[in-house]
């Protein structure tokens, strides 16, 4: 959960997994497990999260075995929680299958192996030995901390309840079992020491640019929603606590800020488009007075059930914003909303999605399509 460039380090790891097509993530947790569980909930970017909580420390091996028991797949991928190694997961999995391996490890060439210990491989990629850190120095290949493991093979071993995966399984079995390595030359960082944690803060800014474009729902996000009715006049408008000031902050953080709002009250004839425009005129005046800005307001007045291409969760309003501002990249955009349709709008446009829960129970269908719940 250590923050790197504005979000937990774990988010970057799970982003790599989701982008690779992983369908289920098991998080092995222990001390302060509730911090992780409350932050991520039961899904991340639509991928299910399962928790494998250690009641007592199981060490790396015991944690992996316990997590493996929560899966039903023939093979599974393991990552270290404090290491980002930006490999091609498909290439690693294909090598694992091709060699009919028990374990396949992503390896990384480094200038000095002293911190990690070196790995020795045969010509066919089979790992011959894992050398202790104290015995290693100079250039070489290290264990990058990503494994593809044959689940049945692992669970079939006679292993203690808690053990070191590296020292008590990998090292003794090197050269005896079908343990292979695949070398990758992609970005690698281990934030387990302070100097590399601070290095990550500098490097991630260039490697993983922050979202640049912000899309906002209106009722329930900017202003207090009138349940069972609509804000029909400026006199009924009530800002959410601290919202004008928050908009000022967002104006500094994002290149563009957009409002995308379904307003079927107009479609129902309960107010006119002129009434809606007057509300938004006053809203923009107060946003500007607070030091903020909204670059574009996009409204769909069509009725629910009309299958309108502009009504969320359809992305017509996002496409219009992109036509008006061609620099908008949905992959570098984030949507903040308080409804399932807002989250589906984000998912359909391939934006990141943030759900405002207001402390209410969060519907399961929201968890399936949301990146972050506040």
How would you describe what is shown here?
The two termini are 16 Å apart. It contains 13 helices and 19 strands. The chain has two domains: 3-204, Spore Coat Polysaccharide Biosynthesis Protein SpsA, Chain A; 213-373, HAD superfamily/HAD-like (Rossmann fold), CATH 3.40.50.1000. β17, α12 and β18 form a beta-alpha-beta unit. With 374 residues, the chain is of the alpha/beta class.
Chain-wise SSE layout:
Elements: E1 3-4, E2 7-8, H1 9-19, E3 24-29, H2 33-40, E4 43-44, E5 47-53, H3 59-68, E6 75-79, E7 83-85, H4 89-98, E8 103-110, E9 119-121, E10 127-130, E11 140-150, H5 151-155, H6 165-173, E12 179-184, E13 188-190, H7 194-207, E14 213-216, H8 243-253, E15 256-262, H9 264-267, H10 273-289, E16 296-300, H11 316-324, E17 333-337, H12 340-348, E18 352-355, H13 364-367, E19 372-373
Parallel strand pairs: 3-5, 8-12, 14-15, 14-17, 15-16, 17-18, 18-19
Antiparallel strand pairs: 1-2, 4-5, 6-11, 7-13, 8-11, 9-10
Helix pairs in contact: 3-6
């Amino acid at each position: 959960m250590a923050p790197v460039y504005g979000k937990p380090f774990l988010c970057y790891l799970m982003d790599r997994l989701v982008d690779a097509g992983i369908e289920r993530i098991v998080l092995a947790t222990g001390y302060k497990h509730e911090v992780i569980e409350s932050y991520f909930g039961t899904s991340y970017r639509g991928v299910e999260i399962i928790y494998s909580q250690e009641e007592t420390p199981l060490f790396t091996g015991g944690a992996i075995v316990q997590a493996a028991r929560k899966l039903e797949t023939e093979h599974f991928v393991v990552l270290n929680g404090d290491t980002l190694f930006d490999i091609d997961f498909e290439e690693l999995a294909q090598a694992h299958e091709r060699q009919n391996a028990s374990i396949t490890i992503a390896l990384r060439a480094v200038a000095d192996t002293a911190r990690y210990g070196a790995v020795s491989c045969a010509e066919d990629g089979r790992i011959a030995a894992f050398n202790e850190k104290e015995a290693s120095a100079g250039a070489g290949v290290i264990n990058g901390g990503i494994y593809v493991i044959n689940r049945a093979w692992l669970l079939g071993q006679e292993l203690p309840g808690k053990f070191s995966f590296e020292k008590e399984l990998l090292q003794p079995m090197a050269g005896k079992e079908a343990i292979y390595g695949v070398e990758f030359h992609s970005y690698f960082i281990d934030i387990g020491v302070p100097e590399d944690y601070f290095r990550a803060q500098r490097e991630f800014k260039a490697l993983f640019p922050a979202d640049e474009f912000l899309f906002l729902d209106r009722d329930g996000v900017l202003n207090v929603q009138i349940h069972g009715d609509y804000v029909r006049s400026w006199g009924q408008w009530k800002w959410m606590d601290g919202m004008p000031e928050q908009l000022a902050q967002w104006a500094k953080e994002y290149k563009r800020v957009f409002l995308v709002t379904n307003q079927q009250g107009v479609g129902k004839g309960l107010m006119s488009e002129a009434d809606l425009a007057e509300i938004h005129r006053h809203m923009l005046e107060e946003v500007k007075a607070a030091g903020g800005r909204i670059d574009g307001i996009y409204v769909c007045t069509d009725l629910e059930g009309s299958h309108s291409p502009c009504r969320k969760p359809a992305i017509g309003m996002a496409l219009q914003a992109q036509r008006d501002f061609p620099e908008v990249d949905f992959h570098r955009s984030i949507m903040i909303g308080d409804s399932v349709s807002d989250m589906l709008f984000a998912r359909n446009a391939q934006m990141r999605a943030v759900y405002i829960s207001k402390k209410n129970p969060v519907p399961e269908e929201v968890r399936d399509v949301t990146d972050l719940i506040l």
